[in-house]
């Protein structure tokens, strides 16, 4: 029997094996894509930056022999973390580049995300604003440990240091965050009720509705994105915050309305000025009162990101 391969048979077999390996490599990446996007967003606070580092991680993964990677998830998280760190260090002066505070980009999420308390808390605007005060390495260590429950050894490999140093960084970052973040978990129903009170005050101009749900030391932070007018400094105190909101949030609006939305796993308002989207007003609640309000003007248009990336901590 003639067993000589037909011309091109070896090349065809090699090509088929290559195609099969490429398919398996792609499937492996897609299996971890949602986790990777969530890690990147919580580290960077921007969907555009998260998508960029995700693309860079994919290109790196595509160009290696993934068959030789014993733990694909660990490899991908390590690669993504290093690229996110590089981007964080390059943007460390972003808060100083424009007048006024910087806020994370509001991430549209489904209502279901709000019921996953651990996930919603990890991406809350209040927490992400606290994380902005950490160094890039502290932020990476905190996010990977506290939100995603990675082991110290794995984190050390990702950030390029020793396990002992990572433990010290984690302790320091945890102590910083603990004294600055809200301590009591809030239900999705309570968050929606707070958003409804905000909406009524915004649309009716009645500050008393708002004063009933604002904490005495509530803080409102505005980010104009370097384009729109915004309060240069945080507005502090229930009376001042209520006055600022019913006065039009610093806009010159003829008509101001609020549309209930869900961002970063909790209830918020999409604020419309004379019928046009002007910003997203996110809410931070501590116990029974609104402790923080985060108004991002000139936000990116919603992209349906939640349908593209099912957010996950595991």
The DSSP helix count reads: 13
Q: What percentage of residues falls in helices of 4 or more residues?
A: 40-55%
**Mean pLDDT score:** 84
Total beta strands: 6
Please describe the biggest sheet, giving its number of strands, its sense, and whether it closes into a barrel: 6 strands, mixed
| Strand order in the largest sheet | 2-1-6-5-4-3
- Based on secondary structure, the structural category is alpha+beta
- Radius of gyration based on Cα positions: 23 Å
Give the overall shape.
elongated
Q: Note poorly predicted spans.
A: 1-6
Distance between the termini: 55 Å
How much of the polypeptide forms β-strand, as a percent range? 15-25%
Order of helices and strands: HHHHHHHHHHHEEHEEEEH
Explain the overall architecture.
By secondary structure, this protein is α+β, with helices and mostly antiparallel strands. It is 51% helix and 15% strand. It has helices spanning 9-44, 47-62, 72-90, 111-114, 117-122, 125-131, 136-147, 152-159, 163-178, 188-204, 207-211, 238-246, 305-308, and strands spanning 214-223, 235-236, 256-263, 266-273, 276-286, 289-297. The chain has a 6-stranded mixed beta sheet. Strand 5 and strand 6 (289-297) form a beta hairpin. Helix 2 crosses helix 3. The termini are far apart. The model is unreliable at 1-6 (pLDDT under 50).
Describe this structure in a few short sentences.
Helices cover 51% and strands 15% of the residues.
